[in-house]
Write a structure and sequence with these properties.
- With 170 residues, the chain is mainly beta.
- Helices cover 14% and strands 37% of the residues.
- The longest helix is centred in the C-terminal third of the chain and has 13 residues, at 129-141.
- The chain is globular, with a radius of gyration of 15 Å.
């Protein structure tokens, strides 16, 4: 098993640890191969669609879809697959999609940098309706030409995101 999956969801300072799978700007979705401990290409996104921010997961968690909790960290620069970003919760986007046993929840954490010099791109602590709409559009467009049929079912605040993260801890 990859040592990245053995990390705790929170670091010693209580910050959320997000493992980057796909960096900001990528038109290819990468995925951690748990057995080999390497990042592999999962699939290409539709033409014109790229990741707006670093995308990854929170280790030591298990979401309804059977994978670690998905996360998107809103910061100004791209990192690289395997980077561990110390973050804080901003929100939780509830999404469901088709799975092998019908529709299944696959929420996404929206995170902010919690490292020195990190920023949240001028959006502050509150996510504006425009930013939420843009993120929803990305999440739906990122599943184009797949059989996932993703649907946004709502947004929750930072406190609810923290509760969800603790609830999914393994």
């Amino acid at each position: 098993m990859s040592p990245l999956l053995e990390l705790e969801p929170f670091d010693a300072k209580g910050r959320v640890q997000m493992v980057v799978e796909t960096p900001r700007g990528s038109a290819i979705k990468f995925k951690l191969d748990e057995k080999k401990g390497i990042f592999t290409v999962s699939r290409s996104l539709a033409a014109g669609v790229t990741y707006p921010f670093d995308w990854g997961f929170v280790p030591g968690t298990l979401s309804e879809d059977g994978d670690p909790v998905d996360a998107l960290c809103l910061h100004s620069h791209a990192s690289f697959p395997g980077a561990v970003l110390p973050c804080r919760c901003l929100a939780l986007v509830s999404i469901d999609q088709k799975g092998s046993k019908g529709r299944v929840g696959n929420p996404r954490l929206i995170l902010a940098p919690a490292w020195e010099g990190g920023n949240v791109l001028q959006i502050g602590v509150e996510l504006t309706d425009r930013v939420k709409a843009e993120l929803e559009t990305f999440f739906l467009n990122a599943t184009l030409f797949t059989d996932k049929d993703a649907r946004i079912t709502g947004w929750q605040d930072a406190a609810a995101a923290e509760v969800y993260l603790h609830k999914t801890r393994i």
